[in-house]
Amino acid sequence: MRRVAAGLLLAATLLTGCGDGGARPAATAPSRALHDPASRTPTPEPARIVAGAAIARLLRPTELRAQPGGAVMTRVGTHTAYGSERVFAVAARHGDWLAVRAPQRRDGRPVWIPAADAALAAEPWSLVADLGDRELTLRRNGRVLGRWTMSIGAPATPTPTGRFGVTDLLAEPPGSVYGCCILALSGHQDRFRPGWDGGTRLAVHGTPHPETIGRADTNGCLHVDARALRRLLRVVPLGATVTIRA
């Protein structure tokens, strides 16, 4: 059973850069950060873990760098602003350094952390969002376990493509413009409707208007129905890789 994380949480409008309308949505009650479904504490693994198949749970505060041993970009703690454990999707490993997907880098490129600052674990779960088919696919060890129709960004506010990591799993209060739930991602959006002054973070979330699912009319995020989201929050762990492709 999942437990609700304790601590001060920010409003969802500060996290995600998308809503159902052209202007910034009204503030809602704070989102609730949920623990990783399995509450796993991974043990260190050898370098055979490959990109897209591993997560790195931060063990201590660390510095994010643009390259192994390079200049420090910023420093992060073991928990996100939403109270989630900080778990990265691993992009690559080079000696004593890990390349991880983090929202602190706006251009979508990985950042580097010392491998000693994180616990590695193989990660079988992943998501693939196909913008052409408007379909979100859940996979475990490559096996398809679920497919759902999704809404994507409008032509003027397209959904970014690339590989991202799940940073937070959030339960929304009733009536939220983000539906029941949010899977916050490490990516950012850079094109918005006129008048938008909300956040820039990319996410998979719901909508209070389920009849719109399947359209190309969002501010960049991916929308799926509540039933799909509740299943995703049960099984998809923090740090899982989400691939968005054209």
Average pLDDT works out at: 84
Let me know the largest β-sheet.
Answer: 9 strands, mixed
Please tell me the total number of domains: 2
In N-to-C order, the SSE pattern is EEEEEEEEEEEEEEEEEHE
Q: For the record, what CATH class of the largest domain applies?
A: Mainly Beta
Shape: globular
Low-confidence stretches: 1-14, 21-30, 35-52
The helix fraction, in percent, is under 10%
CATH architecture grouping of the largest domain? Beta Barrel
| Total DSSP helices | 1
Strand proportion: 35-45%
Structural class call reads mainly beta
Distance between termini?
36 Å
CATH superfamily of the largest domain: L,D-transpeptidase catalytic domain-like
Protein architecture, described:
- This protein is mainly β and 246 residues long.
- It has two domains: 12-35 and 124-245, L,D-transpeptidase catalytic domain-like; 54-122, SH3 type barrels, CATH 2.30.30.40.
- The protein has one helix spanning 226-235; strands at residues 32-33, 54-58, 62-65, 72-76, 87-94, 97-101, 111-114, 118-122, 125-130, 135-140, 143-149, 152-153, 162-171, 181-188, 201-205, 216-218, 222-223, 241-245.
- Strands 1, 9, 10, 11, 13, 14, 15, 17 and 18 form a nine-stranded mixed β-sheet that branches. Strands 7-6-5-2-8 form a five-stranded antiparallel β-sheet, with no helix packed on it. A two-stranded antiparallel ribbon has the order 3-4.
- It is globular and about 50 Å long.
